[in-house]
Structures are given as structure tokens and as C-alpha cells.
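Colleagues,

Please find the record for the two-part complex below.
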Amino acid sequence: MANNEIKYDRYRFDVVVIGAGGAGLRAAVEARQAGLRVAIICKSLFGKAHTVMAEGGAAAAMGNVNENDGWKVHFRDTMRGGKFLNNWRMAELHAKESPDRIWELETWGALFDRTKDGRISQRNFGGHEYPRLAHVGDRTGLELIRTMQQKIVAMQQKDAKEHGDAEKYLKVFAELTITEIIKDGNKVAGCYGYWRETGNEVLFEAPAVVLATGGIGKSFKITSNSWEGTGDGHALALKAGSALVDMEFVQFHPTGMVWPPSVRGILVTESVRGDGGVLTNSEGKRFMFNYIPEVFRDKYADNEAEADRWYKDQNNNRRPPELLPRDEVARAINAEVKAGRGSEHGGVYLDVSKRLPADEIKRRLPSMWHQFKELADVDITEQPMEVGPTCHYVMGGVKVDPDTTAAYGVEGLFAAGEVAGGMHGSNRLGGNSLSDLLVFGRRAGAGAADYVKKLGGKTPEASDKAIAKAHDHLNAPFTREGDENPYSLHHELQNVTQDLVGIIRTESELVDALKKLESIRERAGKVKATGGKAFNPGFHLAIDLENMLLVSESIARSALERQESRGGHTRDDYPKMDPNWRQVNHLSQWSGKAVEVEAQPAKMLPSELLELFEMDELKKYFTEKELTKGGN
Amino acid sequence: MTRKVKMRIWRGDSKNGEFKDVSVDANEGEVVLDVIHRVQGTQMPDLAVRWNCKAGKCGSCSMEINGKPRLACMTRMNSFGDDETITVTPLRAFPVIRDLVTDVSFNYKKAMEVPAFEGPEDLKPGEYRMQQVDVERSQEFRKCIECFLCQDTCHVIRDHEENKKSFAGPRFFIRIAELDMHPLDRLRNRKQKAQEEHGLGMCNITKCCTEVCPEHIKITDNAIIPMKERVVDVKYDPVRWLGSKIRKREGIN
């Protein structure tokens, strides 16, 4: 098809940020402050991204509540949480820069909860040695996204005053989906997509694209993610020739709602446990004491008396095991239910009503109180909640350079936030996501800005051929033969991932999953959108489905390769963590026909970071040979 | 426990539209959005509906259910009688895009007209000190999830397109109040501006906005009325007017 027959809106920017959650907005602020013209693309309305659902807080070692905290402690906790598979440089940058990113939000108008002396309050969370999470009740994500949304508006107001046009340097494109990264040789030349409202097509010409598209939860049946979590950025990166790292690691948050069925998966914040909530089984036992793994024995209380004392005196008692990292708690709940000690509807009980007075619960956990009252007829100030694991977060993602967030293999492509991989290793600590997207969102904006400036005037160009290809791909759900229903196919996909690539995995099931995914892919090629192009959810899902398929294949294939259990990857047939596997990262790439997974050596920590740990602890994670050789 | 329910769904665009009657399954514990999704998956694949989180946190699935502005994800099916027909229509105060989806850009334009937070120049990041009791007043308003149900229900603009130009609406009155009550905001005259530029005076405190707020923000009592009272004070009290010219933190800002 000649291009003069293709109709599309055309925009030119220096940087296009795909995604308007925390990472995307922070990237946009940074790139604009560097003097560039920036487009922000939201798949939804501005301010609705999945970041609004983050509840507990943002981890930053400000030391406001316990002055012993500092970046080194935060770094250690993050590496332990991720079972040392983390990209150490990302974990280091994150621990060092988080406090500045939080403080900066205050200067943009954020109002965090306060300590008695008027500083930002910090709360306890799983895997964090000290109270570390800056928070606003249990709606911290909303505060973050609103603050940055309002910062963007403030910058636009300034531009309006100084340049006579609010959108001259910073423009928000709401309800627009990007379906293709367009390249010129190996350099990014822009991206292509469509307005959800009209179905009209859009070309963005830009030398730099930041992926900030968030997660993949909608590939699973039970998930805490909103509809946008369809792995768009993961898929865009794969198709553009970049690579995803360690996609087998998917976090199942231990506490999602389980009843009634329609709310299954909705998040119950970890703050419930941070503020004293305990987990019990159908026999009324606090079962977490039976699930403290060897590597954490010296840090967690093995009896109720000590665990209870910890809430008052953290210096002389070990932490309650309810606050183990999320992967441990999720597996424990799963095991209790399997052993027949689950709650009425197949979860376990989480009870905060005995620890705190009703008023205090409503003050500290207002959205949880409302959520259970309005959706489940449960009053959490008097009754226990029923909870169970829910797909929450993907640790794997686009392989990036830690300092600039430049994506592997494609010049001009950057990635930050959940879509990027490496930072959290095999398991993310609660609270480390909001800080991750601030730290690396800012670095992505800066990285993209530097790249564009270095390009000088030599801007890559979007060829007619590339545009025609993107156009054809976008219109395929209308033009191709077939009669598959996108909704039913999506349900099938979710069942495959949930049942065969879920919280506990085995070789035979993973092989089966890959077979089934292949057949779903075949049928996805026959998905037909009915109706027109204007705001047509069936058409939107037909497009998103391809992304979820790519991501699911990448997860299943990586999971099949890794013959051990670590963090968000548990193999029934290889139940132990194996230090030899710590030395391996899995790289997913798209061959044009399938996702191929390749093992790559994981880098050893430099000696100055290795020295932050006791040798006894390191022995649990590293081989003797590695430790004899020492850090890099 | 599954039962059949009757639904009347408005379908159409900016030009034409009509009600479509459907009969659809509803399971125990479901909300209106679940049932709309079932209609979409089984009967009307192109039915346009906006939604994101399905947990009452993002404010996307605003619509009118039996004539009342509601979040579809927080409206339980068991709140209706067994034989009751549930009628769903798009928000009335905003132009329809398609089916249940409306053009809410009015709200984003109004957001642009509210001057941003202006922090103290002499404090560096990390040096802000505020007491919990002082931030709590603004925090109540920052719970807003921007579902725009308050805007939709407000009679000043619900049936009066002509008022939209000079009226920001309850959502932005709480935004102004939030900044006004922020312990460290430096900008003066936020309340007067609310009165003079954002149409605060047009509100006659019928509290419809408070009633529909899914976050239970006391929009009228805690934001609109206090601002109205202080605006009246400063307009008619020459001493306070003078005081306000001299120091921001005394009397009225």
C-alpha cells in the first residue's frame, strides 16, 4: 500500500514517553527540564495509570524513624529480597537516590504522613530492616501520580506564560495506544499507534522513546493489575529487537482478596501486616513460624511472644515472620491451602482487628476498610480478611544499562519502572517499586535527553515502508480472515498461565503451557474485531492480546530453563535454590516466529559492595569458588 | 449462585443513540462492571466502557446507574431488587464519545487553570517540616480519585452548558482548598481567585457533590463552605483585608 493512501496524524518530538504512570511522568519531567520537547502517551486518561493502585509506600532510607537506616542497609535488604540475582548497580543507584526523589516530591506539593517532629513518616514493610516506607495512609501511589501529574501541569502553565503555548514543550496524549516502535537501521525513529477514541492512526517521529508501560498482570487470571497491564512495553521492546531479562520471575503478592469471586485478586496492602496483621489458618494457628527459610532464620522471630514484642521494641527482638519477603509468604499460604488448612473460600485469614483499635485501623488503612466493607461485606476492624496469592508484579523486563536506562540492542530506546528488568532480581520488596520508578524514571528522562543531544541534527527517519507495516499490523483485526473472539481467547490464555506457569511450576506443565500458547498464538492470528474503529474495546483487546502472548511465552520459556527455585520462580521438581543458578541471567529475544531464551553470565558484585555483607550470609547465595575469588 | 438480570444499556455516539435491553448472568458478589464486561464478552464485543482498576481506586468507570452518578466497579449487583431492570447511561454533564464513554476533557482544562503549588524558596528538599494535624486537612482532598462524579452531578453545569466557562466545579474547589490549606504554600489569594475566577459563588451548597463522592470527601462542608465564609470575611472586613495585604499567614491568606 502506498503511503499516500494511509491516513495518520503526525507529530514530531525529541522524546516520546510511552506510559503515564510514575516512571513515565518522572521521565517526562526530567526530559522537559533538560530543554527538550516531550510527548507523554497514556493508554488511559491522564492520572489513571496503575501507579494509583500502589498502596503501602515508597521505600527510601531517609532514616526519619530509625536513624540507623541508610543506603547501605537498603541496598542489603534489596539484594537479599531478590536473592542476589539483582543487577547490583541498579540496586545501588536505587538505594542511594531514593531519598532525594521522595524529598523532591514534597517540593512539588506531595503531602506524606508525618512523624512527630514534622518529617516524612516511614512504615515497616516485609524485608526492610527498618521502617522505611514514605506513605500517605494506604494510598501512596495515588499521591505519587497526582503529584507528578500536577507537576506536569505546573510546567505547562509555565510554558504557557513564557512561550504562549502550554503544550509547546510538553504534551499529554490521553487514551492512545502505541503498537510499534519504528526504527531507522538500528536507531529509534519514532513510534506508531492509534487514538482509542476514534481509532485514527498516529505517527510520532522522535529519536528517543522511553518505555514506561508497567507490567503484565493481565496475562494471568488472578491479578491485582488493572486492564492496562498487558505487557505492551515488553512486547514493543522484543519486536524492536531488544531483549528481556529474567522473565521467569513473577511476583505473586501473598495477599489478594479471594471472596467474592468478582474481586478475586484485588490487592490487600502489605501494610496490614506491617501494622500488625497476623496470618492464621483454619485451625487458628499463626502458620508463618513454620515457613522461615534457612537464609532468614537469624532475622525472624520463631515464637509469637518475640514477634509481638517486635512491634514495640525493634532493636531487641526479631521481626514477625508475616513480614518475610513476599515470595516466602505467598508460597506459605499456597502450601497451607494445599494441605487443607485454608479458609472457607480457599485462602487464609489475615487479621488486624486484634492488634489495633477500630479508629486506628480506619486511619491507617482507610482504603482497605472501605474495600472490604463495600465489596465483601467484611468489617476489618472486627473480622479477619480472607486472602490468597495474586499475580502482582513482574521482576523481569527490558534489559537496560543501569545508569542511563538505555535498552539493550536498540539505540534511542530506554525503559524504566516495571517494564525494565534487573533491579529487583528474583523478587521485589514491597515499597521498592514506587522508589524504583522515581529513581529510574528520572534516569530514563536524563538518559534520553543526553542521547538526543549527542545525536545533534542527525535525526533518524521513519520510512514509508515502516509506516505501512505498522499500519497493516494495526488494522489486521479488521482485515484478516477468521472468527476468533478476543475475549474468549484472552480467558484461555489467562487459564494457561494461571494453571501452568503460576506460583508453583514443574517441567511437564511448562512444556504443556508452551504447546498451548503456540496454539493460542495460531488462533490469535484469526481474531476478528467486529464493529467500527471508534472506542472499540474488542479491537483494543485484539491488539493487546498479541503482547500478552509474547510476554507469556517469554515467562514460560525462561521458567522452563531455570532448574531451581528462587524468589518469584518456584519449581516443584527443583525445590532448592542453587548458587550455580545465581550466576545465570536469562535473555529473551524475538526471532520473528518465537521467543528464544539464552543463558548469560550474571555479573559478580564489586568488592566494595560485597564487603557490605557478612561472609556467613554470602555463603548461602554464592559458590565457594566465587567467594574465594572475591568481588570484581 | 447465578441469576439472570435485565439491563438497559445506552448505546450510541455524539449524534444518535438508543437503549438496548439485554438479559445477562450475574454471579454472587458481582458489581455492575462485572456484568457489563460479561455483556461485552458474550453479546456486544464493541460496547465502549472506560475502566482501569476495578477496585475503586482510579475513578475511570464513572457512569450513571439508574440515573445516579456511580462507579460501576463499586456498585454491587445485590443492591438492586431481583426483578429490577438496571439502566446504565453515560455521564450526563459531558459529551458522549461512544456508548458509556464520555469526553471529560473539560476537567483537564479546568485543572490547567488552577495555579500550582508554590513551595517556600528558603527550604531545600528534605527540609520541609509539617505537623500531621496540619497536613490532614489537605490530605482529605488529595484522596480525590478524579472520577468526576461530583462534576457530573453538580446542577450548576449538569444542565447548563453555558456555565461551564466560568465554573470550575467541586473537584477543583477541593483542589484550590487543598492548596490553600497546605501549610507551606506561598501563593496568596487562592480563595478570592476561587470566587472571582473559578465560580465559587455560583455554588449554592446543595451538597450533591458530597453525596456522590466515592471517597467520602466532605466537599461542601470541609472545602466549599470554609472558603465561602473566608471570602465573605475578607471582602467586608477592612481590617482583615489590610492584614492580608501585610502578612499571608495572618487572617486570611
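The domain at 105-246 of chain B is CATH 1.10.1060.10 (Fumarate Reductase Iron-sulfur Protein; Chain B, domain 2).

Comments are welcome before we finalize the supplementary table.
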